[in-house]
Amino acid sequence: MNLQQFEYVIAVARSGSLTKASEQSNITLSAMSQSISALEKELAISIFKRSKKGSQATAQGQVVIQYAKKITKVVSDMHQQIERTTMCSNGVIRLATIPTAMHLLMQISTQFNQQQPDVQLAIAEKNGIDIIKAVQQNELDIGLLMIHPEMKLDLTGVNAQRLQTAKMLAIVPKESRYGRKAKISPEELLTYPLVSYRDDFILWYFEEVICRYGCPNLRLSSNNTNALTKALHEGAATFGVDYSFVEATRKKEQPLAFKPLDVPQNTVEMIMISQRGLEQKKGFQLFEKQLKQYFTAI
């Protein structure tokens, strides 16, 4: 006996007709009849009483049908459990993001958890270099980080793909000296008291790009968006990408101007890195699809 025979028995019992069951199962009538007959011969019973009116289960057949339903359910549950555990390691996707993208990831994860309750997301906040090392050392499955063309990063042993290209912005008081310009140069930005979001990419950009045009003191470096917004409202300026902390600031409708930073290389990339081989996991495929859809939409 085999699982397919039990499935045929259930189909006939449900439809009450061997002909209807074969049509619904997309199999020939003779093939289904032979399969059920072979099972009856093996069990030495008649499962169905056949007549012109259809197929009706015998008393012994009722027992077979009950067990057939239990067996097929157990097998179905087994397949579902296997699928859950092959989503990713133990059904969990371990991922980390740089601080500037955490609010984006939380929005994505909420939607993903609603649609895929069998896959859990374990989310951490790390600096970009730490994310790369963690993925390389199998401590993380996925990492989101920002890169600049001039950054030298070792991505050995991981897959990397671009999610979105963004421009670096200068954010200054709208009514200030340079608030009405189409673009703001680093020299102009440096005339303001500077504050910044605290993560390794932003600090790298400050030291390696902004400081080429002068070396000001960074008045405040923090992940507290309320403190940063207050400083900006009081006359400070900052720089960042258009979907980092800047987005939260823009929504507060503060009197701020968001201007492209006038530097030779003004674009940066948000990338996703992942372990090699993870692309075969269903959970990763589902999360990757939703992640790309989200970044395409913003």
Can you give me a brief rundown of this structure?
44% of the residues lie in helices and 23% in strands.
Q: Which key features would you list for this structure?
A:
HTH-type_LysR_regulators; D-Maltodextrin-Binding Protein, domain 2; LysR_subst-bd; 11 helices; Arc Repressor Mutant, subunit A; single chain; transcription regulation; two-stranded antiparallel ribbon; rod-shaped; 44% helix; 298 residues; alpha/beta; 11 strands; 2 domains; 7-stranded mixed sheet
3D structure, described in words:
- There is one protein chain.
- The model has no long low-confidence stretch (mean pLDDT 87).
- This protein folds into 2 domains: 3-85, Winged helix-like DNA-binding domain superfamily/Winged helix DNA-binding domain (Arc Repressor Mutant, subunit A, Orthogonal Bundle), CATH 1.10.10; 93-269, D-Maltodextrin-Binding Protein, domain 2, CATH 3.40.190.290.
- Strands 3, 4, 5, 6, 9, 10 and 11 form a 7-stranded mixed sheet that branches.
- A hairpin with a 2-residue loop joins strand 1 (48-51) and strand 2.
- The two termini are 55 Å apart.
- The chain is rod-shaped.
- It is built from 11 helices and 11 strands.
- The chain has 298 residues and is α/β, with parallel strands linked by helices.
Low-confidence stretches: none
Number of domains: 2
Name of the level-1 CATH class of the largest domain: Alpha Beta
Approximately what portion of the residues adopt beta-strand conformation?
A: 15-25%
Number of helices: 11
Order of helices and strands: HHHEEHEHEHEEHEHEHEHEEH
State the major sheet: 7 strands, mixed
- Give the C-alpha Rg: 31 Å
Give the N-to-C terminal Cα separation: 55 Å
**Helix share bin:** 40-55%
Structural class: alpha/beta
Count of individual beta strands: 11
Please identify, by name, the CATH architecture of the largest domain: 3-Layer(aba) Sandwich
CATH topology of the largest domain: D-Maltodextrin-Binding Protein, domain 2
- Whole-number mean pLDDT: 87
Tell me, what's the shape?
rod-shaped
